[in-house]
Amino acid sequence: MSLVYPREGLKAHPPYLHADYVGTLKRAPQKPLVIIPHTLSELTGPVYGHETVGADDADLTRQHAGEPLGERIIVSGRVLDEDGRPVPDTLIEIWQANAAGRYIHKVDQHDAPLDPNFTGAGRCVTDAEGRYRFVTVKPGAYPWRNHPNAWRPAHIHFSLFGHSFLSRLVTQMYFPGDPLFAYDPIFQSIPDPKARERLISRFDLDTTKPEWALGYRFDIVLRGRNATPMEA
Amino acid sequence: MADLTPSQTVGPYFAYALTPRDYGRVEFVTGNLVTPSTTGERIRIEGRVRDGDGAPVPDAMIEIWQADAEGRYAHPADERRPNSDFVGFGRAATGADGAFFFETIKPGPVPGPDGAAQAPHISVGVFARGVLKRLHTRLYFDGEAANAADPVLALVPAERRATLVARKAGEGRYTWDIVLQGEGETVFFEA
C-alpha cells in the first residue's frame, strides 16, 4: 500500500504565530515556509512497535507502590489515517499533570502538591485496528504566566508517529465542557472551531467501567491517504 | 475522508515523558543512533537553538530521521532496507544553553524525484514551548559536491541555503545551529 500526503488537510493546524500565545512571539518563523516535494526522506519514518512498551506503561495508576489520588479515568480511541483507515502498531506517548494540576517536571513550580504515586507519563502501541487504551487520573487545570490569571484547561499531551515523517503529530487532548476553553490561547490558536472540537474527548458510557472509572474517547487522525482511492 | 487532528505545542514539560533520562525512565530513543552493527563514517553533530532575540531555547526537542551510510531507510517504503540494526531516528532535548548533540553516521545519498539522487541529508523536526506545530527542516553537509545538484536545496533561495548546511568543525564533527526567527533564520519546510 502506498500512501500520499495531500496538503489540504494542513489547514487544520494552528499558524506558527498566534500573538495571544506569548510564547510564539519570538519563536515563530517570520520567513515563508519553503514547499518541498515528498521524497523517500519524507515518505519514510521511524517505526516503533510493541518492543518499546513495558507492561505497566499504559496504566499510569500502577507505576508506583500505591495508587495516585484523583479521579481514575480510562482514555481510549483509535488512530486513523485521512481515509479513516486504522493506523496499526504505532507508538503513542502521553504525559500530563497530576490531579492537582502539577507536573513532576523540574521546572514546574505551581503551588500544588506532587503525588508520590504518579509520574504522569505513559506509552502504548495501537493494535491491528488502530485502537489504544490508557488508564490514568484526570489531570487538573494549572496556572501559567501567559497573561494575568491565565489557566490551562485540563489536558493530556499526545505524541504519535504514524506511517512516515510526514504523519508525526504532537497534540493535546481536552475534556468536554471545560470552562477554560474560551480563555486558552493554545486551544484557540486553531483557527477552525470544528478542528478545535476534534481535540475534545467525549465522555463514553460504553468504555466506562462500572464502579471503577469513567471512560473518555479520543480518536486521532494522522496524515496519509491511499495513493489509489477506490473512488475518484 | 477523515479530518486531521490539529497540532498543539509540546509545551515546557515534555522531558519526563519524551527525553526522560534525568527522571530515571527507560528511553527507547536517544541522541545516539549508532548501534554495534552500524557501518559508515561516525559523526557528531552539535548545535544550539536560538529564538528571535538570539536567546538560547532551553526547552526544545530535536528529532532527526536519516538513511544509513548507503542511503537506505529502515522503513517498509524503502525496499532496500539497511543490512544492519541501524534505525536512523534520534531525539535530543536542548540544555540550559540551548545546546543539543547527536552521535550518528553520515548518511549516504538518497534517491530523489525522477531518479535523481539527493545529496546526503538528515530530516529534522523541532518542537518547543511556543511552537504550535513541528518545524520541519533538513541538515546538509559542508563540502558535499552533491549539494549543488540537490533538488530540495534548489528550491531554497540561494542566500538562505547556508542555514541548512552543517559546518565541519573537526574530524567527524559538524556544527549546525537552528535559528527559529530573525537574522539567519533557518529555512523551514512545508511538505
UniProtKB/TrEMBL annotation, chain A:
Keyword ATP-binding: no
PROSITE patterns per the UniProt record, alphabetical: INTRADIOL_DIOXYGENAS
All copies of domain Intradiol ring-cleavage dioxygenases, residue ranges: 75-103
InterPro entries: Intradiol_dOase_C, Intradiol_dOase_core, Intradiol_RC_Dioxygenase, PCDO_beta_N, Protocat_dOase_b
Enzyme Commission number: 1.13.11.3
A Pfam family reported for this protein in Swiss-Prot or TrEMBL: PCDO_beta_N
The organism's place on the tree of life at top rank: Bacteria
GO function terms (MF aspect): protocatechuate 3,4-dioxygenase activity
Key words, A-Z: Dioxygenase, Oxidoreductase
Family the entry assigns: Belongs to the intradiol ring-cleavage dioxygenase family.
Protein name: Protocatechuate 3,4-dioxygenase subunit beta
Organism: Chelatococcus albus
Origin organism lineage: Bacteria, Pseudomonadati, Pseudomonadota, Alphaproteobacteria, Hyphomicrobiales
TrEMBL record, chain B:
MF terms in GO: protocatechuate 3,4-dioxygenase activity
Domain Intradiol ring-cleavage dioxygenases intervals: 45-73
Keywords for this protein: Dioxygenase, Oxidoreductase
UniProt KW Oxidoreductase keyword: yes
The keyword Signal belongs to this UniProt entry's keyword annotation: no
Enzyme Commission numbers on file: 1.13.11.3
Top-level taxon of the source organism: Bacteria
InterPro entries in UniProt: Intradiol_dOase_C, Intradiol_dOase_core, Intradiol_RC_Dioxygenase, Protocat_dOase_a
SUPFAM superfamilies assigned to the protein according to its UniProt record, in alphabetical order: Aromatic compound dioxygenase (SSF49482)
Protein family per UniProt: Belongs to the intradiol ring-cleavage dioxygenase family.
Name under which the protein is recorded: Protocatechuate 3,4-dioxygenase subunit alpha
Organism: Chelatococcus albus
Taxon lineage: Bacteria, Pseudomonadati, Pseudomonadota, Alphaproteobacteria, Hyphomicrobiales
